[in-house]
Known about the structure:
This protein is elongated. The chain is an alpha+beta fold and 391 residues long. The model is unreliable at 14-22, 29-37, 77-89 and 109-134 (pLDDT under 50). Helices cover 23% and strands 19% of the residues. Among the domains are: 124-194, RNA-binding S4 domain (Structural Genomics Hypothetical 15.5 Kd Protein In mrcA-pckA Intergenic Region, Chain A, Roll), CATH 3.10.290; 198-284 and 371-391, Pseudouridine synthase I, catalytic domain, N-terminal subdomain (Alpha-Beta Plaits); 290-368, Alpha-Beta Plaits (2-Layer Sandwich).
Amino acid sequence: MSRPNLKRPAPAPASAATSDDSGSKKPRAALRSGFGARSRKPGEPKATGSDNTHSGMSTRARDHANKQVPVYLPPASKSTELSTELSTEPATENKPRPLQSRRTPRPTRSAMPPRKIPLIGESSEHAVQAADAAEGVTAIRLSKRMSELGLASRREADDWIERGWVRLDGEIAILGSKWLPGQKITVDERASKQQARWHTVLLHKPIGYVSGQAEDGHQPASVLVLPENQWKPPAGKAMHLGSAMALTLRKELLGLAPAGRLDIDSTGLLVLTQDGRIAKQLIGEDSDVEKEYLVRVRYTRGDRLPESDLRLLQWGLSLDGKALKPARVTWQNEDQLRFILKEGRKRQIRRMCELVGLEVLGLKRVRIGQVRLGELPLGQWRLLASDETFA
């Protein structure tokens, strides 16, 4: 039995003609242009409009396109009708929105709130306390606060802080720490023991010695503070002064500084100390410790100083364009005045006397606060007793 030939006939060439159902022959290119598309004759215009809407389509496709298919539209809701009735603005054209970053823009430096910077030497807990309790209150340096409380001088306080002897709210303070109201300051016992070893010397300064550094060939009064010049009073006086009479080695007297001035041509009580607290108490800006002087004078404008000028010495004079504080000035005897001042400007008493016509012949300081010169001989010194205070 012979096998059928299953090979497909070879396709006709593109230029070959094919025949349709009617038997007419049409070129293959015309069949490729559409379903039953009619070829346009040369010179015939291209068909436009609705008549040519379904040209090139078969009868079945044309009928399907012309079939009316109902479209379902949902009824408008009340909110839509209401918004349509109330909206009177013309509809805006839908424009594409510019792309926006989802990240929140970072505020500028000027708009950013100030950052809390912890104070030097305070912990984060202290920083929070400072932020809560210091509104309207300015923090001050710890050493300054210690000086205000009379615990130590500012230099001494800084030295203690460096040694780790000061605590602020229980934590060891460091140099530069700040103090706020309500914070507790605690000082180590070692600092108190160091203060106990410091000395304050009371010297009866002679004429011809300067109070501070040597100048114009004149020696400072501190050169007189030698063990051999320490006053040795009678037995009864020594018992009264107690620790002030203890013999002192020369090395223990190093670092003494004058707490106040006394002119080269004046004599009397001069204080030299190693204790910064005493220096601040006597010569600080806020010092109100009294100093008492006996001044021998001679009036150069007549027989006797008028009472009006005496009242002027008590209050009303100015030096260097600055008014003087009120003073107590009274006659001690016929040629001697008693001055009690609460300030100590350079050559103050001598300049005051010159303004009212008085010449100063002698000036002696006999008291500073509650400490008197007493029987201390000229050129000798003694220690300030533990129970003696200036204020």
